[in-house]
Amino acid sequence: MSKHSNGSVHSTSGTRKARRRSSIELVDAKVAVDLATAQTYSENVFLFVPNLIGYARVILAGLSLHFMSYHPKYCTLAYCISCLLDAVDGQAARALGQTSKFGAVLDMVTDRCTTSCLLCYLSSAYPSYALVFQFLIALDFSSHYMHMYSSLVTGSRNHKLVTSDVSRILWYYYNDSRTLFFMCAGNELFFVSLYLMKWVHTPISDSLPFPFAIPPYLAYLTSLTWPQLMALLSFLICAGKNIINVVQLWKASKILVGVDLAERAAAREKSK
Q1: Given 60, 67, 148, 262, which residue has the most CB atoms within 10 angstroms?
Q2: So what's the pLDDT on residue 175?
Q3: How far is CA 84 from the centre of its chain?
Q4: Residue 53 CB contacts under 8 Å (≥ 6 apart), including other chains
C-alpha cells in the first residue's frame, strides 16, 4: 500500500487492487463460442460432474411439475430431491475443481424456475392469495437478476462474492453455507407445505400410530395436519428469505446507480 507525505496509509487503493485481482477477465463472445464448440471430452464444461447434477435437478423438477396436479407423493419426492441436490453440486464442483460460470448460472436459473413454477401452481390452488404469489415470483426473479447483473458490471467472478462493506446481511447470507442452506431449505419447505395442505386433511392426532394423552398446550398443534405444522414452523424462515431478496434488490439497484454515476463522471472528465 502506498503512503501519503504525512505517513497515512492509502488503504482504498489496496482494496481496489484486491478487488481487481478477483474480477473477471473479459473474453470476446465469438472467441468464447469457438472455444465451447471445440472443447474436448477431457475438458468439456457441459459434462462436468456438478453440471450433470444440475441437469438431473432440471429433470426432477420437470417430473415434479408433471405430477403436481394429480400425484402429490411423486411430486413432493421429485421436488425435494431436486432441491436437496442444490447443496450437492456446489460441493462437488469445489471438491473436483470443476467450478464454472455456466454451472453457477445453471444452478441459479434452476432454483428460480423451479420455485416459480410451484408458486404458479399455488396461485391457482389459493386464488385469494394469487397476488401474493405473483409478487413473490417477481421479487425473486428481479432481485436475483439485478444482483447477478450488478456483480457482472463490477467485475465479480461470482454473484455470491459479496463483501461485508457492501452489505453485511448479504455477506453473511452468501458466505456462510449453513445459513444459505437453512434459509433456502426453509423457504422451499414452506411452499411445499402449502402445496401438501391441499391434499392432506388428516389431523396429526389421528395420524399417530398409537393413542396417547395429549397435554392441553399441545392440543391445538395436534389438531393441525402435518403440512400445516410444517408451514407454521417454516413461515418465519420464508419471510426472512424474502426480506433478504428485498435487501438484495435494493443493494443491487444502488450498485448499478453508482456505476452509472461513475461512468457519467468519467465521460464528463473525458469531454473536458
Answers
A1: 60
A2: 92
A3: 13
A4: 85, 88, 89, 92
> Rounded to a whole number, what is the largest CA-CA distance in the chain?
85
Which segment of 30-34, 184-188, 198-202 scores lowest on mean pLDDT? 30-34
Cα atoms in the Cβ-side hemisphere of radius 13 Å centred on 244: 19
pLDDT at residue 246, as a whole number: 98
DSSP states of 228-261 as a string?
HHHHHHHHHHHHHHHHHHHHHHHHHHHHHHHHHH
pTM of the predicted model as reported, rounded to 2 decimal places: 0.85
Element (H, E) at 182: helix 177-197
CA–CA dist 178, 180 (Å, integer): 5
Predicted pLDDT of residue 32:
83
Position 212 scores a pLDDT of: 66
Return d(Cα 78, Cα 83) in angstroms, integer: 9
Mean pLDDT score of the chain? 88
CA 223 – CA 17 distance, rounded (Å): 60
Tell me how far apart the alpha carbons of residues 192 and 119 are, in angstroms, rounded to a whole number.
10
So which residues are the catalytic ones? 111
Q: How many CB atoms lie within 10 A of CB 174?
A: 19
Distance CA 266, CA 212 (A): 74
The phi, psi pair for 170, rounded to 5°, reads -70, -35
